């Protein structure tokens, strides 16, 4: 590699790091905004999937506004006219991810994933068959819980394992509770790479309303 090629490669790495920092900062703002809206409208979302769709659509809009909504990865057997020109959305819902768990390979499906650029756009690591070498690298993955009653801790274990594998840079758990007594909490784990955000309604004192002369 010539000196000019080395400089070009270093510049490209710096640009990618700036992009990723910009994305992560923007996503954190979106999550904070989402928390604020939850406090104001706690019954807006019926199910966990509704939260997932809402947050994913906001992330996609953010990435589009930054011009960072696409990643390139060229696979064999592309559609006619798209050989060497396959662009993929940078954010996905519940993609199929392989991970090693207790000595075996298992599939998992994080609720939301933001992808990184490939080192080699023409050689994705997740090709089928003999060329498979791992997952497409992930910048950020999020698990969402809404009024979770099981409390198995599986989502956190999943993200920690992906972080340890080196295929995921940052993880986030958004745990939303509308149950009485739930407390908001923010915790950082895995050397700052995993955020656990618990959103809960503030406890309000119980008061009996006095009847007024205006009531009918």
Instruction: Give the oligomeric state of the chains in this entry, treating copies of one chain as homo and distinct chains as hetero.
Output: single chain
Global mean pLDDT: 88
- Rg from Cα: 21 Å
Secondary structure tally: strands? 10
List the secondary-structure elements in sequence, H or E: HHEEEEEEEHEEE
Distance between the termini: 85 Å
Number of helices: 3
Content of β-strand: 25-35%
State the low-pLDDT regions, or none: 204-216
Structure classification: alpha+beta
Gross morphology:
globular
In the sheet with the most strands, the strands line up as 3-6-7-8-10-9
Counting structural domains, the number is 1
Largest sheet: 6 strands, mixed
Question: What proportion of the residues is helical, as a percent range?
Answer: 25-40%
Descriptive notes:
This protein is of the alpha+beta class and 216 residues long. It has one domain. The protein is built from 3 helices and 10 strands. Helix 1 (3-40) crosses helix 2 (48-66). It is globular and about 65 Å long.
Furnish the topology, listing elements before pairings.
Elements: H1 3-40, H2 48-66, E1 70-72, E2 87-89, E3 91-93, E4 97-101, E5 104-108, E6 112-115, E7 138-146, H3 154-165, E8 168-177, E9 185-189, E10 194-200
Parallel strand pairs: 7-8, 8-10
Antiparallel strand pairs: 1-2, 3-6, 4-5, 6-7, 9-10
Helix pairs in contact: 1-2
Q: TL;DR?
A:
The chain is α+β, with helices and mostly antiparallel strands and 216 residues long.
What attributes characterize this protein structure?
single chain; 216 residues; alpha+beta; six-stranded mixed sheet; 3 helices; 10 strands; globular
């Amino acid at each position: 590699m010539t000196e000019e090629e080395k400089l070009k490669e270093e510049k490209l790495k710096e640009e990618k790091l700036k992009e990723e920092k910009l994305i992560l900062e923007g996503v954190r703002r979106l999550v904070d905004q989402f928390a604020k809206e939850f406090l104001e409208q706690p019954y807006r979302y019926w199910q966990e999937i509704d939260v997932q769709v809402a947050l994913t659509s906001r992330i996609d809009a953010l990435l589009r506004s930054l011009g960072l909504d696409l990643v390139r990865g060229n696979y064999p057997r592309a559609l006619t006219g798209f050989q060497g020109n396959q662009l993929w959305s940078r954010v996905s819902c519940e993609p199929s991810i392989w991970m090693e768990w207790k000595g075996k390979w298992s599939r998992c499906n994080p609720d939301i994933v933001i992808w990184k650029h490939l080192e080699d756009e023409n050689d994705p690591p997740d090709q089928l068959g003999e060329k498979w070498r791992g997952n497409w690298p992930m910048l950020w993955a999020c698990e969402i819980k809404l009024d979770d009653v099981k409390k198995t801790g599986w989502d956190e274990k999943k993200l920690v394992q992906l972080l340890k594998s080196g295929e995921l840079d940052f993880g986030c758990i958004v745990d939303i509770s509308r149950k009485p007594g739930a407390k908001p909490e923010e915790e950082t784990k895995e050397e700052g790479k995993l955020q656990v955000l618990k959103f809960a309604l503030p406890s309000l004192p119980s008061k009996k309303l006095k009847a007024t002369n205006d009531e009918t």
